[in-house]
Amino acid sequence: TRLFDALDDQPLDAMLTLLRQLRSDPRDGKIDLGIGVYGDEKGRTPVMQAVRQAERIVAEAQTTKAYVAAEGDARFVSLLAPIVLGAARAADDRYCGMQTPGGTGALRLAAELIARANPDARIWVGTPSWVNHYGLMRSAGLTVLEHPFFDQATQTILFDEMMSALETARTGDVLLLHACCHNPTGAGFTTDQWRAIADLCARKGLLPLVDIAYQGLGHGLEEDAANMRALLDIVPEALITASCSKNFGLYRERLGALWIRGSHAQAALRARATCMKVGRSMWSMPPDHGASVVRTILESPELTASWQAELTTMRARLNAMRAELARAVPQLASVAQQTGMFALLPLSREAVTELRVRDGIYMIENGRMNIAGLTSENLPRFAAALAPSLS
Ligand code: PMP
User: Where do the Aminotransferase class I/classII large domain residues begin and end (predicted)?
Assistant: First the structure.
């Protein structure tokens, strides 16, 4: 037998299957609420204005394609740090950052770092979470433990259940948190709940790993980071994984960053050196284009203003669609309180299939919808198709 004959068949990725079905659906007026990419009111995912301009500047100014560094573009990292961490933490030498290939690269590095620091580490992930979180953590050898997070039927956060599950956590365990705009539920903790989580982490010696992939798409750049920053001021150590895929619209360019918050500067530096070594053996150097673009934007007050204005427009559109959906479908009132690109609708798998087959409405089988797939034009039809499936 041949080597590759020994491999198992892999079930086709649910998202890719959905995409294929969508593309081969000949009906007019299909509604794509599947893949997690921002769409404007015309259903397009345009290159942001500031990105376009920065790309022109980069194309003109770049004189070489020689490697940058294993930590990526240090200037990009230091310009992004105050946006993510706030100015005070960005200037604190207990925080050490590096560029990564997307938020995914940051998460994988964070997981590898944890596994090296503590081979017995376990990571707690709230149910449900972004599907890739589980595979990413397991790939690095971490044991994934799930704790209750969200009840789909009642659209509520199961905070008490979560906190009692976490009482059984061991010192050295890791707690994965979404800083804002939770994927897939859109649900977020209150500031008091964040405080209680931070206190629990400090008391039990849990390491928070905060994933911030949608900063600016909930309530605002500062607002979306505020609870995470407050937590960072309470715990002695933490990991922060950021993505520029959504808020800069740079998806395919693969841009993200990882910050390590150590109990002292030396520890943070050592942890970053470990991450750089791991990165060297996975991708050697992160791709530069996205980092050059974001650096160019953040070095220019005009481009920064343009980026922020466009991000504000995107956020306003998401929130307007949330409000409109909640108004059109009273059972989904909670959608207006939630934030970001996603909602996890209280739909059965059968109902999701029926929406696809009968109405040409595409969403993930668990009921996750991309809010950014809605437009003022398609929303009434979506609401009408949805109503009979909701009790
Ligand atoms: N975290 C979460 C919660 C996400 O939803 C995503 C993207 N879907 C990421 C991280 C990483 O995104 P990327 O690797 O494209 O930057």
Answer: 30-386
Closest CA to 50 of 389, 377, 310, 352: 310
Question: pLDDT tens for residues 304-325?
Answer: 999 999 999 999 999 999 999 9
**Ligand 1 center to 6 CA (angstroms):** 32
Nearest in space to 250 (alpha carbons), one of 46, 13, 388? 46
Which segments within the chain are labelled E, that is strand?
A: 31-32, 95-100, 122-127, 143-148, 150-151, 156-157, 174-178, 207-212, 238-243, 256-261, 342-344, 361-362, 368-370
- What tokens were used for 96? 């050490």
Total-model pTM: 0.97
Going from the Cα of 183 to the center of ligand 1, the distance in angstroms, rounded, reads 9
Q: For ligand 1, atom 9, name the residue with the nearest CA.
A: 103
CA distance readout (Å), 321 to 133, 187, 339: 27, 16, 11
Q: Is 102 in the pocket of ligand 1 (CB under 6 A)?
A: yes
* ipTM metric: 0.99
Query: Is the peptide bond preceding residue 128 cis, with omega within 30 degrees of 0?
Result: yes
Q: Work out the percent of the chain whose per-residue pLDDT is above 90.
A: 96
Distances (CA, A) of 59 to 51, 56, 276, 291, 312: 12, 5, 28, 13, 27
